[in-house]
């Protein structure tokens, strides 16, 4: 076997080289020029002729795709395809919810109409994370170039106090996780209604109709929902939801029809009266009554005062591609842009399968998460240096501290050592309008509290505040005083709804994820796989993932996602390694020649529905 030394990363005048197999044609001494010319001619001939709509004027401006090299024993194979559609696409963690969004677009609605329809439907069919009792973030990019983002994150109730979740010894309790005291004031209904009123084309009643039908007429329970209920039975059977989801004391069985009449009635009230039904009317009364039953602190005043916030989206670039991302109170956009900026200081990156690439990825994540955990918070409560953190100059300074042959220790960087059940959905319509939405209850089924008579679960989002600054939350994130509990504060989030444009400024990717802090790294790795490693979207989603969040000071990687040689190399230069079963739940849409490709997370469940 002939080997050659090839440059796999270049930076600041120095290079990192690895031994690779020389191309077969080069080994045999045959020139490659003819093959390259032929390939270029074929690619030119394959350009689509569609002149408008979602496909722009000539197809996406992306290089030809490459088949990646996955480790032996990795759970997924390369070469699969997602769902391909000619006009529009919805991808979510529920096939029924995706169909609800597609139904709205078939009826003439746009991507925002479809996103709101999908969001309400997820509250019915994906109760572990889909919700009207939680909150989220939405990034919008209209076909005419307008961009927007809306923050409908939950807020701490007015009666919140800094030390409400710690015991007399100063240690955190579980009250920020389980029960009535764990919930922030929900923002989902207000946020979705506000997005619809500004950018939608249909009425709230029209887009909620599929969700009302699913709740009132019921839907067939699948094995995924049954497994979820089985796994969370210890939490859920403590509260009122047991009657609906555990008939006879057992999780509702696969193949059974789940009917949720209380939820259907709540949705009908919202459809008829708008968000006022939820924040001031009958639903508000039911929610406050539930709070009083369990010694919670959300009041009618809390609900009446809630407002979603329109924020200017973050804009950045990576190697000529444009990113539109969510600003604080989400940390996702800032942290992801900072990481990408660090990687962009390298003229080229090592191959996907190499230890050198894993090292650079971990070190970029480490530095961005140190900034995340010490400098980001609700901008209404602190001065957030977003412009500085997302600047190319800041990334260059951080990149200078990365050594190619040695892992940095987080503790040496003077840092303060950041829900598993969030859900993301992506939507693109036939005109090219695009929506990336991530919404959450935080933990699975949130606090476990089910609003009696109203039919929905409440979040446990208060745990995303630093309920005990300096102590880890449910995701192992350790945050500082800037995220301590205060009335009216929005907890710092890792949600990362993101839209990517190609170098011509046309839509390329709509992506986002679930999974606590791994949302940031998982979303970013799919984007890198497409742009940097030229994978198809299906391969980009199936590729092994890794995660580093500064503290704990170790790389988390998926089982069989690293080869033994890569693990040994990373350990030798000082990285701690922690193997886990799966990382992150991404749902994404990519614009491809001939239409759109939708890929639902292969590690989870859901559906991509297009037409």
Please tag this protein with its features:
611 residues; alpha+beta; Glutamine Phosphoribosylpyrophosphate, subunit 1, domain 1; 2 domains; seven-stranded antiparallel β-sheet; globular; disordered N terminus
What is the topology?
Blueprint: E1 3-11, E2 14-21, H1 24-27, H2 33-45, E3 83-85, E4 89-92, H3 95-106, H4 111-125, E5 135-141, E6 147-152, H5 188-199, H6 204-217, E7 219-220, H7 223-231, H8 233-236, H9 242-245, E8 257-258, H10 261-273, H11 276-279, H12 282-293, H13 300-305, E9 309-311, E10 314-318, E11 321-325, H14 332-344, H15 355-375, H16 386-389, H17 392-399, E12 422-428, E13 434-440, E14 498-501, E15 507-511, E16 513-514, H18 518-531, H19 537-542, E17 546-547, E18 555-558, H20 564-572, E19 577-580, E20 585-586, E21 588-592, E22 595-599, E23 607-610
Parallel strand pairs: 18-19
Antiparallel strand pairs: 1-2, 3-22, 4-12, 4-23, 5-6, 5-13, 6-9, 7-8, 10-11, 11-14, 12-13, 14-15, 15-21, 16-20, 17-18, 21-22
Helix pairs in contact: 3-4, 3-6, 4-5, 4-6, 6-10, 14-15, 14-17, 14-18, 15-20
């Amino acid at each position: 076997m002939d080997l050659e030394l090839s440059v796999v990363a270049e930076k600041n005048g120095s290079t990192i080289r690895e031994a690779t197999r020389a191309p077969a044609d080069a080994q045999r001494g045959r020139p490659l020029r003819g093959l390259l010319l032929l390939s270029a001619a074929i690619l030119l001939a394959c350009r689509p002729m569609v002149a408008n709509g979602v496909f722009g004027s000539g197809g996406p401006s992306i290089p030809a795709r490459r088949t990646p090299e996955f480790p032996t024993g990795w759970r997924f194979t390369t070469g699969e395809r997602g769902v391909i559609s000619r006009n529009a696409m919805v991808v979510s963690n529920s096939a029924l919810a995706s169909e609800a969004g597609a139904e709205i677009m078939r009826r003439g609605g746009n991507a925002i109409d479809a996103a709101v329809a999908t969001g309400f439907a997820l509250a019915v069919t994906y109760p572990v994370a889909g919700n009207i009792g939680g909150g989220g973030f939405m990034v919008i990019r209209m076909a005419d170039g307008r961009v927007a983002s809306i923050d409908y994150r939950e807020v701490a109730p007015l009666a919140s106090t800094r030390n409400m979740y710690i015991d007399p010894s100063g240690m955190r309790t579980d009250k920020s996780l389980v029960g009535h005291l764990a919930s922030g004031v929900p923002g989902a209904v207000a946020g979705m209604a506000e997005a619809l009123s500004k950018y939608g084309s249909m009425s709230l009643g029209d887009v909620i109709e599929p969700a009302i039908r699913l709740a009132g007429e019921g839907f067939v329970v699948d094995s995924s929902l049954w497994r979820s209920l089985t796994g969370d039975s210890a939490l859920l059977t403590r509260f009122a939801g047991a009657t609906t989801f555990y008939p006879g004391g057992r999780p509702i069985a696969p193949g059974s029809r789940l009917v949720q009449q209380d939820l259907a009635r709540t949705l009908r009230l919202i459809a008829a009266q708008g968000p006022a039904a939820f924040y001031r009317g009958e639903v508000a009364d039911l929610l406050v009554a539930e709070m009083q039953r369990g010694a919670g602190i959300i009041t009618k005043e809390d609900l009446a005062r809630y407002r979603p916030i329109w924020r200017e989206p973050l804009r950045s670039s990576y190697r000529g591609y444009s990113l539109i991302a969510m600003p604080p109170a989400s940390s996702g956009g800032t942290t992801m842009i900072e990481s990408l900026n660090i990687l962009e200081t390298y003229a080229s990156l090592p191959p996907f399968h190499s230890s050198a690439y894993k090292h650079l990825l971990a070190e970029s994540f480490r530095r961005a998460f140190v900034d995340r955990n010490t400098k980001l918070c609700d901008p209404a409560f602190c001065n957030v240096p977003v412009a500085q953190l997302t600047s190319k100059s800041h990334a260059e300074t951080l990149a200078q501290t990365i050594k190619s042959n040695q892992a940095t220790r987080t503790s040496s960087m003077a840092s303060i050592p950041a829900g598993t059940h969030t859900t993301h959905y992506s939507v693109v319509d036939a005109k090219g309008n695009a929506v990336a939405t991530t919404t959450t209850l935080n933990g699975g089924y949130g606090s476990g509290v089910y609003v009696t008579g109203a039919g929905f679960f409440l979040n446990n989002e208060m745990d995303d505040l630093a309920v005990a600054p300096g102590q880890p939350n449910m995701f192992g994130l350790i945050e500082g005083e800037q995220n301590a509990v205060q009335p009216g504060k929005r907890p710092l989030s890792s949600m990362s709804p993101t839209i990517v444009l190609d170098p011509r400024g046309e839509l390329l990717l709509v992506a986002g994820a679930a999974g606590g802090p791994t949302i940031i790294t998982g979303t970013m790795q799919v984007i890198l796989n497409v742009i940097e490693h030229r994978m198809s979207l299906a391969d980009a989603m199936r590729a092994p993932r890794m995660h580093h969040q500064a503290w704990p000071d170790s790389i988390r990687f998926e089982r069989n996602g690293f080869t033994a040689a890569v693990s040994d190399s990373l350990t030798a230069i000082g990285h701690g390694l922690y193997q886990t079963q799966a990382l992150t739940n991404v749902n994404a849409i990519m614009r491809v020649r001939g239409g759109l490709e939708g890929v639902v997370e292969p590690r989870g469940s859901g559906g991509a529905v297009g037409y």
